[in-house]
Write the structure tokens for this entry.
Amino acid sequence: KMAADTSVDILQKVLENEILQSAKVVEEHLDAEIQKLDQMDEDELERLKQRRLEALKKSQQQKQEWLSKGHGEYREIPSERDFFQEVKESKNVVCHFYRDTTFRCQIMDKHLTVLAKKHIETKFLKLNAEKSPFLCERLRIKVIPTVALIKDGKTQDYIVGFTDLGNTDDFTTETLEWRLGCADVINYSGNLMEPPFQSQKKYGTSLTKLDKKTIRGKIYDSDSDDD
């Protein structure tokens, strides 16, 4: 019986030892896995950090390049010749064709000044319509103010008068920003499906009367022809 008890004890010890050994192996295996995961995470974090730093550096370089090309401020250009040069060197350009005597051009100026600082990815310009007859004819600009929206050197869209901006002189900078976003000439973060109009609930409800009032190519002010 004693011998039997001894063999049971030995067997029990062997089993306990086996279990301990197994547990140790499992533990070591888990430790190795955890260490591997930790290592991977650190590497990943390092790679992510590097990627972010590179993106930041690239973004800073891009910003400097834009600023060197005159982005970040709303500028007047002196002539038609300057217009072609300015448009050639920037991907996105917003150009306001204005006239000194038109009150609505001053309203447009106020909003474009704010947006030029906010959206340095886009070049914001103004050009006196009376000093650029060739361009006005070529771009079929009949109403002042008209804002030409240019992408990759091609005029994609126009904001003619304030019709697209809720048909009011009191439109907000956000409304103009939304309209530029619709033309994809700025990086717009809002919802394009929801124009932030103040006085007009639904976009495009009133058709423009401006073009019909243009006689023999004469340039009219939109504030004398709108409402």
